[in-house]
Amino acid sequence: MIEYIPLAISSLNAAKDIASGLLHLRDFDKITSATMELKGHLVQTYDHIISEKERVLVLQSQISELKKECVRLKDWSAEKEKYECRQIAHGVFVQIDKTCQGNFEQAHKLCCNCFNKTIKATLQQSTEFKPHVGRIKTLTCPNGCPALEFSDYIKQT
Questions:
Q1: What is the share, in percent, of the chain residues with pLDDT greater than 90?
Q2: CA–CA distance, 86 with 139 (Å, rounded to integer)
Q3: I want to staple 123 with a disulfide (CB 3.0 to 4.6 A). Which of 71, 72, 127, 139 is the partner?
Q4: What are phi and psi of 99, to 5 degrees?
Q5: The pTM is what?
Q6: What pLDDT, in 10s, does the model give residues 136-150?
Q7: What confidence tens digit (pLDDT) does each residue in 73-111 have?
Q8: What is the DSSP letter of 122?
């Protein structure tokens, strides 16, 4: 996980050795050459430190995103306990508030497909007249799930 730190330390050790050697040199060309080598090791050390810092920033960002997702899932866990899957018409199932006692038509209904994906999508109801069939109610999910069509709600008992 911290792969660049040993490389940075190695570069710093090499730089230290070169700097120590500079103290004993008297030839200007050798001093210039050793100084350039020293500079190269310092730049290499700096590059390793920057690379490690970038990795740390990426990891911190990922941790932050995971914490947000954890909070969202905890909130969702509490929210989903308020709903249950119920049949509101023959073959039509929705997520509906557990405390719903009145008319299904007036109740707040959520899409089962989205609910299972931890998305709270409110179904929108419309009614239309189709020749040879009669009046049809349609529940439409805003996320593009298949529409639910039926003729009438089941009476609650």
A1: 41
A2: 14
A3: 139
A4: -85, 0
A5: 0.57
A6: 999 999 999 999 999
A7: 888 888 889 999 999 999 999 999 998 887 888 889 999
A8: B
- Give the Cα separation of 110 and 15 in Å (integer): 66
Euclidean distance between CA atoms 42 and 46, whole angstroms = 6
Tokens standing for residue 89: 């018409």
Cβ distance 154 to 91 under 8 Å? Answer: no
State how far the Cα of 124 lies from the Cα of 138, in Å rounded to an integer.
Answer: 8
Six-digit token string for 121: 């999508």
Where in 26-130 does DSSP place strands (E)? 83-89, 92-97, 109-110, 124-130
For range 123-140, the mean pLDDT: 91
Q: How many residues does the chain have?
A: 157
Long-range contacts of 51-56 (CB under 8 A, 24+ apart): 51/4, 52/2, 52/3, 52/4, 52/5, 52/8, 55/4
Q: Name residue 13's amino acid.
A: N
For residues 33 and 107, what is the distance between their CA atoms, to the nearest angstrom?
A: 83
